Amino acid sequence: MSHYCDLAPGHPFHGPYHDEEYGFPVVDDQALFERLVLEINQAGLSWLTVLKKREAFRHAFDDFHIDRIAEYGEDDRQRLLADAGIIRNRLKVNAVIHNAGIVQSLRREHGSFKGWLDHHHPLSHADWVKLFRKTFRFTGPEIVGEFLMSTGYLPGAHHEACPVQEHILVAGPPWATVASSTG
Predict the structure, then answer these.
(1) What is d(CA 27, CA 49) in angstroms, rounded to the nearest whole number?
(2) CA dist 97 to 10, 67, 148, Å?
(3) What is the C-alpha to C-alpha distance for residues 29 and 85, in angstroms, rounded to an integer?
(4) Residue-level pLDDT at 181
(5) Which Gene Ontology BP terms does the record give (predicted)?
(6) Which residue positions form the known binding site for Zn(2+)?
(7) Is the pLDDT of residue 34 over 80?
């Protein structure tokens, strides 16, 4: 079985994502929300499809501005479902809008989306899945796992021999911080 670290380097879409984003800690709520939206939209499709549509997603969803998306109404839903630049799936579109409202609530309670993630970290993958299913829409085991790996909350984004892994460890992802404090 091939690993992302084996197929991504040099690829015009996978390469930059692998080298500059995947597995690095994310502190900005808007960037965290973007990752969640992209992972939700990847369900049932290839990651390459999502990466190719990323700019269209940014445009369609107001640069992932959480407060704007939480206010989307029926006209926005119809606009999104008619936008050929993104993945036009009613369940996914509805989940993004609903989840923006949830993130607003989490920010009120924990100061930020990141604050909510940090409050619950560390959890096992299974416990994260339970928490996400209880909190958000359209978040199954693969979506949750990829979201948390991609943002540094779970290990496994890169294999140990991948040169990017060293840069990630220097950046101090939450999973490595916990591992070093307990080891």
Answers:
(1) 25
(2) 34, 10, 20
(3) 24
(4) 61
(5) base-excision repair
(6) 5, 18
(7) yes
Residue-range domains of the chain with CATH:
27-158 (1.10.340.30)
pLDDT at 2: 74
Q: What is the pLDDT of residues 98-147, one digit of tens each?
A: 999 999 999 999 999 999 999 999 999 999 999 999 999 999 999 999 99
Residue with tokens 């879409």: 13
Question: What string of H, E and C letters represents the secondary structure of the chain?
Answer: CCCHHHHCCCCCCHHHHHHHCCCCCCCCHHHHHHHHHHHHHHCCCCHHHHHHHHHHHHHHCHHHCHHHHHCCCHHHHHHHHCCCCCCCCHHHHHHHHHHHHHHHHHHHHHCCHHHHHHHHCCCCHHHHHHHHHHHCCCCCHHHHHHHHHHCCCCCCCCCCCCHHHHHHHHHCCHHHHHHHHHC
Q: What is the pLDDT of residues 48-93, one digit of tens each?
A: 999 999 999 999 999 999 999 999 999 999 999 999 999 999 999 9
